């Protein structure tokens, strides 16, 4: 029976990337230390910060909520949770239920933004009416609402549950299609612009997806296991992630080595050419004259809904 490398008790987890057998207590310590080190190394959270975490109900954001709630005292920051109900039938209802339970467990205030209450429609209708892939519409809506909420809350940063495997996959994809100026946008911290764009941070940047899953299992953390019914499993990103996992299995530690070297070299990639402007309709960040949220809602509903969404958020905050 393998023993924990630290204390010699019965081991329950083997970390291939670090060739380490650990008991559950030392596994928890390992993961929490790793997140803490990521936060310090990339200066993600500072003392006195107000951090808004986008809580979907899936394992990554739920585990991050638990870990951040544990670290909040030693770092000295305030944690807020935001859940966006995307209006994807039963799937969304399950996620909203989990979000409420996590808020109670972590003792962090939760704000729920319900897309059907704000716009009268959910992601499926928005995608259908704009003839865009649901995940791309969903990405625009989530980014917009989280940022608008963070602006109202005067948050210092928006934390998301993107993990090491996600980030390595996104970076590889941009490299394969030679969209090199997108790569700096995939750094662990992206600065904001005062008053209308809040900084984005990724505290799980150096944590393997598999370890996040194990952390949830060993600590009996509730999360929604099923995948979004609108997820497209034929995309390049989806296949890349699968192959990267196989490579990691054969060459343990490959992914973390890649991502650490990449961050060191990030200055060498071309800077994104598009300057961040403000949407002429709603005042939120945009690369063009009108932001994607206003464009999508105008196409689907006949009216750009950015100003309405911002009003709605102002009222509930
Ligand atoms: Fe966004 Fe499924 S969660 S499209
Ligand atoms: Zn141990
Ligand atoms: Zn707008």
Indicate the topology.
Blueprint: E1 13-15, E2 20-22, H1 24-41, E3 50-54, H2 59-75, E4 78-85, H3 89-106, E5 110-114, H4 115-119, H5 123-130, H6 134-153, E6 157-159, H7 164-176, E7 189-190, E8 199-201, H8 209-218, H9 236-250, H10 254-265, E9 277-278, E10 285-286, H11 292-301, H12 306-316
Parallel strand pairs: 3-4, 3-6, 4-5, 6-8
Antiparallel strand pairs: 1-2, 7-8, 9-10
Helix pairs in contact: 1-8, 2-3, 2-8, 5-6, 5-11, 6-12, 7-9, 7-10
FE2/S2 (inorganic) cluster binds at residues 86, 123, 134-135, 138, 228, 230-231.
**Regarding CATH, which class?**
Alpha Beta
| Ligand names | FE2/S2 (inorganic) cluster, zinc ion
Task: Give Rg in angstroms.
Answer: 20 Å
Task: Report strand %.
Answer: 5-15%
What is the count of DSSP helices, taking H or I runs of 4+ residues?
12
Helix content: 40-55%
| SS class | alpha/beta
Give the name of the CATH superfamily: HUPs
Poorly predicted regions are none
| Shape, principal axes of CA atoms | globular
